[in-house]
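Protein Record: Sequence and Backbone Structure Tokens
======================================================
Scope: a single protein chain, as residues and as a discrete description of its fold.
Tokens: labelled as protein backbone structure tokens, with as many entries as the chain has residues.
Position: the record begins directly beneath this header, with no further notes in between.
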Amino acid sequence: MTEELGAPAGLLDRLAERCRFPVGAASVTCAVSGGADSLALLVLARHTGREVTAIHVDHGLREGSRAESEVVAAAASRFGARFESRRVEVGEGANLEARARVARYGVLPGDVLTGHTADDQAETVLLQLLRGGALDALAAMRPDRRPLLGLRRHETEALCAELGLEPVRDPSNRDPRFRRNRVRSEVLPLLRDVFERDPVPLLARSAGLARDEVDLLDSLAAELDPSDVSALIGGHPALARRALRRWLRRGGHPPDAATVQRVMDVARGRARATDVGAGRRVRRSRGRLFLEGPGME
């Protein structure tokens, strides 16, 4: 396939060796926005011999989005993948990134692969740490559905260039209203300057180590009932917090440290109830905690 694509000998092999596609999966579904990372995901998935369905999601946020869909359709056709298009309505307003993400994943299959790279991982570590995400923040994104976490963004861009692909340039990726963009364009370059080394591999490596510790703590915390006040108060604080985080993240993102602490205060009787975000709350009654709100029925 390499010769057919016109790529330099061995380039696709070298990149594919550092990807972690699902073992034994003969077919995969890839979310392909048309950017360099997602196009590289499509190409590398096909290079490994897998049947690929490329899905493009149009958020309806800017003019020209149909042309972006056509870029993905053309790439899918060239590399022998199936193509599907989805459209969601998001609309301008507060929390645009979060709402777009929820809408996007709402129309994608649960096992969809995404083109996140090591650079995305480093940005996520910093963003989540500064949101108070504790150890879960450091663990950041899991590689299960992100095969390209071992690659760098400049490598996906170089691959597209070698293949003659013209990636979609999303102007929102340069919008300073979004914190991730400022972390990418300001914070990481400053860290590189201060420490005189590339921070991305260090942050990505730390995320991998943290995931091992998170998995160990999760296995131990699974034996603790987070709704049992006596078990929470009597257990090791680290396991109690871990059990609460697992419980509270149902139907949403991991809670920050402040939210977990507020729930612990409810368990200790210092408060009768507390909000935990997304319209949900935790209340105490007769020695037990109850998580109430959307999606908790």
